[in-house]
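Example record used in the benchmark description.
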Amino acid sequence: MEFELSRNKEQEKILGILYQTLVLIDLKQELDVKQLLMDAYDCDFEDVPLFSQQILVYSLKNLDKITKAFQVNMINWTFNRINKLEQALLILSYSHFYYVKDVDKKVVIDVAVKLAKKYLDSTDYKFVNAILDKTLQNA
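Model output (structure tokens):
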């Protein structure tokens, strides 16, 4: 079984998986990355799109680094205080920008803003836009 998802739809799936992962981490539950991906895509692990596999693994392996990168740009606020879905969106965007080569910062931010408008409170997209603009540096 092969998936024909657009990159935007795939990022929506990854957003959900990252959200679920952050909740499990908060609850101190064991993570089975393969199982999370298989459940989200309803297929065998080998059939999960490679982009999703790599973004999720990169995000989890570098979670502390990613969190610290955002924290540096948050004044009078902490990364852990923002809601889990917003955290997942920021982590996804950071991973997308730094993992996928030759992806433009504006494209990553545009995708994040669209997802924020779809899934977060009505004005949260402004915060997402601002913090990503400060945190993502063009290489």
